[in-house]
Amino acid sequence: MLPASYATPTAVVLLVGGVLSCFAGYRLFRFVLGVYGFIVGAMVTTSIMGATATWMLVVAAIVGGIVGALLMIAAYFIGVGLVGAGLSALALNVVWRLFGGGEPPTVVLVIVCVLGALAALSVVRYVVIFGTALAGSWTLLIGALALVGNSAAKRVVSGGTYWILYPLDPMPERWWVMPAWLAIALGGVIVQLSTSKQAAARAKIKGGGKA
Length: 211
Description:
Elements: H1 7-24, H2 29-49, H3 54-74, H4 76-99, H5 106-122, H6 124-147, H7 151-159, H8 177-210
Helix pairs in contact: 1-2, 1-6, 1-7, 2-3, 4-5, 4-6, 5-6, 6-7, 6-8
């Protein structure tokens, strides 16, 4: 848990990282993995530390973030698998809440995550695009809300709660957050699909010119 005074820079990191992930996640996938590895590492270390001196929390967040970023960048293909597992877990939770209510059983969740990870490795491009668009739109939304003074978002950013990484637990009385998240994510998917196709076409043209 970071001090409240660090809420603004944290929100800026979430906003900038979210924009890059949402609209350029496929082209900058290693960088995006590093950003989210840093966020997760910082959250884990500060949560373990609990309430302590400010400078210790900041140092712990930086060290944990760097370790998380390095691990995610080094594990590129594992990162792809994790994106697939995360998308599968998200889809399972949505379906389970709609038809069954509550949380899915752990065994079912594990099986679905494993299958999702394996499927992701076979269709890397689309999994990366959809995964980074969803994750990026969520974190940019949180960062933007915190920067404009939304009290709930500021508490989340400074508190380091799992809500940052779990969009199925929205802020109370903010019914529009979920539709906004999905709309931004859809825009990110469209942009990434378009730019990735253009990049592939340019690469093909260059390759043909050299031949």
